[in-house]
Design brief:
Largest interface: A-B, 91 and 98 residues
Number of helices of chain C: 8
Strand order of the largest sheet of chain C: 1-4-5-7-8-10-11-12
Largest sheet of chain A: 3 strands, antiparallel
Distance between the termini of chain A: 43 Å
Oligomer: heterotrimer
Number of helices of chain A: 24
Chains: A mainly alpha, B alpha/beta, C alpha+beta
Number of strands of chain A: 9
Strand content of chain C: 15-25%
Number of strands of chain C: 13
Structural class of chain C: alpha+beta
Strand order of the largest sheet of chain A: 1-2-3
Structural class of chain A: mainly alpha
Helix content of chain C: 10-25%
Strand content of chain A: 5-15%
Helix content of chain A: 40-55%
Radius of gyration of chain A: 26 Å
Order of helices and strands of chain C: HEHHEEHHEEEEEEEEHHHEE
Largest sheet of chain C: 8 strands, antiparallel, barrel
Distance between the termini of chain C: 57 Å
Shape of chain C: globular
Chain lengths: 559, 448, 400
Amino acid sequence: MCAAVFGVGTVGAVAVTLQSPAIAQARQATAAEPFAVAVRRLTESQYRNIVADLFGADITMNARFEPEMREEGLQAIGAAQLSVTTSGFEQYFALANSVSAQVIDAKRREKLVGCQPADPKKVDEACTRAVVTRYGKGLFRRPLTEAEIATRLSIAAKGTAGVGDYYEGLRLALASLLMDPEFLFRVESAEPDPARRGQYRLDAYTKASRLSFLLWNSAPDAELLSVAEKGDIHKDAVLKAQVARMVASPKVRDGASAFFTDMLQFDHFDNLTKDAATYPKYSQKVADSAREQTLRTVLDLTVDQNRDYRDVFTSNETFINRALAAVYKVSYPSKDPWTKYTFPASSERSGILTQVTFLSLFSHPAASSPTKRGVKIHEIFMCEPTPEPPADVDFSKVQALDKGTVRVRLLDHMQNEGCASCHRRSDPPGLALERFDGLGQLRTLENGAPIDVSADFEGVKFTGATGLGKYLRDDKRIPACLVRNVYAYGVGKAPDERDEDYLDDQTKAFAKSGYRFKALLAGIASSAGFFKVEQPKGLGPANPPKAVATARLSQGGPQ
Amino acid sequence: MTFSRRSMMRGMVGGAAVCVGIPTLDMFLDVNGQTFADTGAKVPVRFGTYFWGLGLTDTPDGGSRWVPKTKGKGWEITPELESLKPVKDKVSVFSGFRVNGDGRPNAVHWSGHAAILSGVAPSRGGQMDAPSFDTQIADALGVGTRFRSIECSANGKTVSYSTRTGKSFATPEASPIALYTRLFGQGFQDPNSPNWSPDASIMLKQSVLSGVAEQRRALLARVGSTDRVKLDQYFTSLREMENQLDIQLQRPAKAEACLIPTRPDEKPRAHSVDVINANSKAMARLLAMGMACNQTKVFNFVHTPGQSETYIAGDSKIYHQYTHDEPTDPKLGYQPNSSKLAGLVMQAFGDFLVEMDSIKEGDGTLLDNMAVLAFSDTGYAKIHSLENIPMLIAGGAGGRHKGGYHIASAGEPVTRVSLTAQQLAGAPVGEFGAGAMKTSRPITEIMA
Amino acid sequence: MKRALMNTAPIAAVVMLLAPQAAHAAWTKTYVIEWIEHASYYGAKGGMIDPGTDCSKGTNPEPNWVQMLINAGYTKEEAEWIRNPANPERSAVSGNPKMAFRGKNRASVYKDPETYPDPGILEVDGDKAEGINLDGDATNGFINAITGEPGVDNKFYKALGCWKTFRGPKRMSSGAQTVNDPMREGSWTMVIVVRGEGNDPMNDDKVQVGVYQSGDPMIKTGDGKIVEDFTFTIQPHARNEGVFPARVKNGRITSTAPVDWMMRDPSPGAVRSGLEILKGQIDLTMQPDGSLKGYFGGYRPWAPVYFGWAGFGQVNEVLTWIDLPAAWYAMKRHADYAPTPGGEKTHISFALRVDAVPAFVRTPDAKQEIAEVRSYKAEAPATPPAAAPRPLAAATPAAR
């Protein structure tokens, strides 16, 4: 059944997957009107990118955005759960006032406003209309309705009348656009499909936004909006041409950057701390640099060099700066702030799992944690979450050890059946990384005892970080997980069993491309499955809202 | 200046923003909005939650490092509650209360406080299946102050358990400087300043929001129920922003205890317990002054999160790990390092209350006009126990709380304590919780 | 294209350098100086200013400023007015410039100290010191406080070692903190390169030690220490550089011949343009934890020391508790070296205590790790202008 749905070659003509017959009937009774399939809060980087795209990269945005929420492995899925709390609203409000003030300030006014009022002290509706229409379209990712424009004209007119300044009125109108839920949230809409009676498709602007947020992490540009406006985006050939154009654009780096930032869970950097006495080399600078290193490495391999995605587990090519060189205990070979760098074999470093990012994020403040690292390898790269430790585990058998290596300590864990079932799975890959301490520095001893980095994982034996990297590079779950993540990231929803065949097909295509990330982006962005319509529950006039559904993935349990 | 605020309100805000009222509000307040209808007690009673992670130490043989032996009035200081000594008579201790999950699994380091706050054991970790009750108290008490509630996190992480939707959690101020900026930075109006005039720029700010609220109905009609919850939260936040701006246009009432504090220094971020406790104390002082200056009446304070990563500086092991892997010392009969950390963590709560108690208000102190519900995520942390979760109510609640009691229960639901706290805060709530956790019985023994 | 070339070249170099070094019959160890201070031996059991075996009467006390001015010929009223904070001439920042005019006929003691009689200062009266035996004569000088060896030449310490600018436990004197704080915050950097021709870095008769400037700032750790293993490129300087012939015995690196050299003056209050050291020697020991600790010693000109302090005379006097001409007379009294045989003793023996941590040091173009000790003066840009002197203790809250 699913194959039938996704097998159809035409775009946009995908059947609505209804939740229940009862709702289906209810829907049909009132059909033929658009509805929202999903409402997702803009991420911080999307907000920033849109403002920069529209008003220029020199607009400063000093604000504390509300935290994202990770669900089913991705913040992009969590975003569909998030709203704007009181303190978040205050932040957006301050930002709207600040951004709008910058747009109309003396140095940008001429360039950004584009028209001049007949009298700078009086209302000029034509100019206001032009500005509101132009930026409204960019912010809302669709043309404004006449009512939406009229509201802003009124705000501008009253503001101008109040203070006797045309531009202040205009500023208030722009701020109002920036506070609008249709800007702050991505409201994705479906409409009746003219080609298929009783069925729905995503409307043209929603499709355009899905493309641009996936590929560019920003709002559609003028060309894409115009393709949407004409309705051509529903045509397969036009869609494919747009996808090809967008993947070839340098902005695809922004899209890839946002995706990997999400998938690799860089948000953990926000809360990262290390004990200064144990890891004196750790600093905020090191944390920021590590994050940038990993991102540069991944983008260089997957986007700039267009190499096999799986090389991220084995490549010793990377980028470092002076601060990272100190942590890696290598001499920094450049006078530039950053330099391309190839780790020598003796460093035992290859692949992003051996970088400070992964090694320090998934450790304790003052010690490494093979369990945390193992759990995250499964979760991030194989899409295999580890269940929370059961609440009734008998910890009384677990003994503290201040000497020897963590391997010995964990073996002790293994005698405890309550722990062993998960630790057998999580610990081996983590133990292979044990020659890197909780900050990611190479070491050979722990408490004076030599560290054994042999691993026996899923019946395969390998040694150390290099062995682990090679093992992962050849593991079938690795590309399948990436495909699943790109898709889930793009549609903002965790795939379920109905998506399995689709994901299998995409994974095969990915393999056929030689595991090229850009090919994967293009494949998913131009597939019918990417625009599948699913009707949300509880559509229709407001029922009393209740808190429902799934929640954030909680942090790992005890090791 | 040709702007009149009245014309702005009438002409631009229109009906839409105003009609998005708070239904519960009307039940709570009499006509002039100054008094609680049910109790007649004079505002300001302040309410807050105080959370710390990893519970307190019990022992494998059923003993405890924190539960007092004395029941009823006049509990004796126990090792892990040592820090409460200076304010002991203003604190009631609740032991033996538990979370009954109705068969739902224990989401470790989560189910405990989720149940205390929402009244029901959550179906999964990281979410609550009902709003946290502090939000309802904030809706009632929070009128007339600039902020409906203030969230603080003393551990540097952005952790808050306050939620209206069960999924979007409030963003706390995570450092003394952030808290200072929020309370006393831009938009702060000194209630005691002799020169007050409404700020014209606030009226302009109000106008920005006027168009937004009007779309509410149309937008909500297009979305599914899950999305409606989210958008409702957005519109609630919008309304609060409007309320904040309204408040700023009114002359603030005088507040005799209000002294504007100095800006705190930027502190390095660290999770060691000494740093967290220092932050916690600095934030307690700011929060106390924020309340004395009428900026808020409700707060939610997180000392350390559920799975606390705090540690003693220089020690390679974190508290959470100690609770699980430290053997019980055969001579002492408990986990020595875990218990030491528990005492250190509770030191922050003692300090917190002392800060509140140091501000004079009328014949008493700020603490006398507060009800603070303090609790943790777990009982005996070694086994993630949901039994004997430590809970405390501090402060005189404007005379409603007798204080100084130890209430020992044999496994009754934690919601009884939550309900008691809500009633002490003055909320006309008769019933709290769901399923096995549902209760309509507050603990009257401690109520005056 | 250009960028690609620039990026790949150094990588190849690094890979080569990381190859096993056993093949070369030579070794290099490189460090960054993370603390440098006058080698003052503190002889008290605790505290910061307590009497001890070094200064039996304790640290030089705060002068009675009013009495000092009265002694210089002011009336009590005039003296009190000069010191009065209400006096508009007295600046909160730079003090009252009138303080200068204490010399004969109201001459400025900051310009001409000998217009003022020697007010005296507590001098070191103990027999122990830190530093180097510069003249090879064991019969004069202090006993080495660490090793017990006789003959340590450190007359600067003898003269000024009880002044709180220099006195205190290691790394605790106000002068040392004033100087090291900005250095550790990245204002300037000095690196040490030790290069031996033998096979054993712990025992090698043919060693060269280079002391260079670097333009790369030091970085502090989360708990305020200087991070090891950072990379520094040598910044060639037209004057400030030292290259010492030396030997290593059991990890202790000592000069085999004295060297005249210059360095950025690390003395508190000094003119920063450069310190000229005559007959300089080193005595540095490689520590088990990888760090390097020891001394730079030699003879320095003493008059510029005085004029450095005198540049902000009234501030320095008040903050560091000294009747400044006392320092002039003390140094003059103990000066022990004349560059011209039989000439005036313009120089005084002294020693600097140096703590350095392992660091990577690279050639000025950053292309290679340093593998030789030589002069880079020829590669230096034109001599940078001299920096102005600054208040002695302005950056040291402890001194206020």
